[in-house]
Amino acid sequence: MEETTYDIIAKSLDRISMELHQADENNDFSRIWVLSGQLKGQWRKT
């Protein structure tokens, strides 16, 4: 079965969300900043 654009974006957003949560727990503000930029980039693709 071929992955749809929706599947790819959803998987990417899930990964970024998980990493944001982990960075928040570790107070890793530089990582949060980087991941937030990636999240903004994902929304521009849709």
Structure description:
The structure is a single chain. This protein is mainly α and 46 residues long. The chain has one domain. Helices cover 83% and strands 0% of the residues. The protein contains two helices and no strands. Helix 1 runs antiparallel to helix 2. The radius of gyration is 12 Å and the shape is elongated. The model has no long low-confidence stretch (mean pLDDT 84).
Shape: elongated
Beta-strand percent range: under 5%
Structural class: mainly alpha
Instruction: Quote the average pLDDT.
Output: 84
Tally the structural domains.
Answer: 1
Summarize the helix and strand pattern as letters: HH
What order do the helices and strands come in, and which of them pair?
Layout (H helix, E strand, L loop, with lengths): L4 H21 L3 H17 L1
Protein name: Putative phage-related chromosomal island protein
Summarize this, please?
The protein has 46 residues and is mainly α. It is 83% helix and 0% strand.
Which features would summarize this protein structure in a list?
46 residues, mainly alpha, 83% helix, 0% strand
